[in-house]
Amino acid sequence: MEVRDMDFRLIRLADTQQLRWKNGAGAARSIWREGDVASPDWELAVAEMTGTQPFSSYPGVDRSLFVTEGALVIRSEVRDVTLTPLSEGLEFPGEEVITGTSPGEGVMLDFNILTRRSVCRHSAVRRLGGQGTELSVAGGWTVVHAALGTVCVSAGEDVTLHQGDTLILRGSADTPKTVKLRIGSGSAAITAEILPR
């Protein structure tokens, strides 16, 4: 599908496959893997966990994690931080030895961005409900993930994302495009830009 000369990939959460973490300690839904499946250039996933679990090791990979449901206490030699659905995302190297704890009895959900350091880089931000903004789509990939509620993306046609859905756009560096983002009241989105090195 194309929208105004942009590659356009819409991934509904219900269509994703549930997998185990790389280390087998938790469950995840793989949203997208770009490049080789076994060793992707970049990857998007939604993970879930309960209790206390060690994070998988990803040498050579930079990661960003955004909690979308519940809470997550992250501990390592260099950090001790609690993340919630109102927190900014946490950026960390995939080599870092981390233990995560989901306090209470509920399931913690988080949205993950992983980029192979030698190939590409990424930046990401959480955007809260009631906001409208514009995103530039150029030579890399632009990601919009509905973290809570509904998010509408307008790029020549309107696309509505429901909680857990993800939209991936790729344009041309020669002809950058702009898309409009409308986040419903009480909703939240995570947007990311992934650029080749």
From TrEMBL:
It holds the Pfam family HutD. InterPro entries: RmlC-like_jellyroll, RmlC_Cupin_sf, Uncharacterised_HutD/Ves. The lineage of its organism: Bacteria, Pseudomonadati, Pseudomonadota, Alphaproteobacteria, Rhodobacterales. SUPFAM superfamilies: RmlC-like cupins. It comes from Falsigemmobacter faecalis. This is HutD family protein.
